[in-house]
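Predict the holo structure. Ligand: zinc ion.
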Amino acid sequence: MKVVYSDRYEIPLPGHIWPTTKYGLIRARLGDAAFALVEPTHASWEDLALVHTAEYLEKLRHDTLTPEDVATMELPWAAGMADGFRLMVGGTIAAAGAALADGRAAHLGGGLHHAFANHGEGFCPLNDVAVAVRVLQRDGRITRAAIVDLDVHHGNGTAMIFERDDTVFTFSMHQQLNYPFFKPAGDLDIGLENGAGDLRYNGLLGEALPRVMASNPDLIVYLAGADPYENDRLGGLRLTKAGLAERARLVLAAARAAGVPLVTVLAGGYAADVADTVDIHTGTIEAMLA
Ligand SMILES: [Zn+2]
């Protein structure tokens, strides 16, 4: 299995809650397990334009984001930062392509599901998952895709981008009373009550996955956010590590049973102790390798 990763993902975000150290820590934890490490290349501006508007890309390209743009992004934006995120989009494109070739692949990055076509939002300047799907469609490698977004936050940008697109099934299961306030409808949205735990979560997931598979996708993109974890600082669900491991098994088993290639991207994770976030993400990748 190919695992896409770059040590350039450790984008410096001084004082920010996003631990960009997690990428390197997960890579280190995986050690010499049986996988092929792939270094990504930057997504081209042409690829990005399959999803994002020309006006917005110009701002990223020439570092002319307004203070309002930066405030909505909620990142300590610095000149040149767009290149780091373009690399991460390239990583999701590479991993999605590898999944089609090999049946499954993982990206130790990505899942920037709050980015819209015309603006960045909630730590997400570019929507890597949407771009990867559009690149594979353009290149004739897939017709249909399904997105299984299990980050604790609703995948608002992704839902909006594919709102009128019948070829991409968007499924988000998230904490209802959490960011983002405005949750555009996807194809299947499950908004959980505060404090939902393992049994409730995985029970609903088990009921939802057949509906995802019924959309007949050529590729599943799994956003394996670690932030439904009980000790996450930005989440209000109560999943344990065992529950999150079971979640990964459910998604992988459903894809395997349906014979559909699957690519995993990491998405969020803000545990008080970054080691917990690293544990959860590493467990997901190890489940894929098993
Ligand atoms: Zn999140």
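Residues 151-153, 225, 227, 267-268 surround zinc ion (CB under 6 Å). The radius of gyration is 17 Å.
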